[in-house]
Write a structure and sequence with these properties.
mainly alpha
């Protein structure tokens, strides 16, 4: 990061509690999230195709506890 303003903001953000930092990140990401109907349509189509493949037995589901365990390793 070369922008001194960004560096200063980051320094201040690191002093926040984890929850406050999470709220800040969410606010920043939300400010970047502009509605995109074409992208929404494509994701919807992808989800429908994946669900249909699962129902046809072409795709296997992974239990939630297995997925979470992958990310909760110490």
């Amino acid at each position: 990061m070369h922008n001194t303003t960004v560096v200063a903001i980051e320094s201040q953000a690191r002093k926040l509690t984890p929850l406050a930092r999470l709220e800040l990140v969410d606010a920043i990401l939300s400010s970047l999230d502009e509605p995109n109907q074409e992208l929404d349509r494509l994701w919807s189509q992808e989800a429908e195709e994946r669900l249909a493949a699962y129902r046809r037995g072409e795709m296997k589901a992974i239990p939630l506890d297995e997925v979470l365990a992958k990310y909760n390793k110490p």
